Amino acid sequence: MTDEPKDTFEEGLETLREQAEALRLESEGDRIDSEFQERLKKLEDRADSAQAERQAKQKELETRQKSERTSTLGLGVGLSVAYVIIGMPIAGWAIGLLIDKQTGGVMANGIGMLIGAVLGIVAVVMILNKHQNKY
Length: 135
Known about the structure:
Elements: H1 8-103, H2 108-134
Helix pairs in contact: 1-2
């Protein structure tokens, strides 16, 4: 290599090539950056939609559980009422039958059944009032 002075045209051309290479690299970086931003935006959109879907499912589950809880409670109260309506007159009749056997009478089982029915109705009203006051 010789230490000849370079032509200004050659120097200018070399400078332009370097600037062109720098612009090409910069535009390549911008393209990659915009592609990255686009992918990031798509990923964020997918995450947002997945979160919204999960929240909707969670809300639906809570609504269904609340409905099932209310239904189960109603079923329990209904069965309690049915057992009391059936059981109290039978218990009164059985007590009356025991009284009839001890005394030799015939009216105590009927009276016991009637008293049991009245007590059963009173118990049902109390159960229903207790249930109504809760909710």
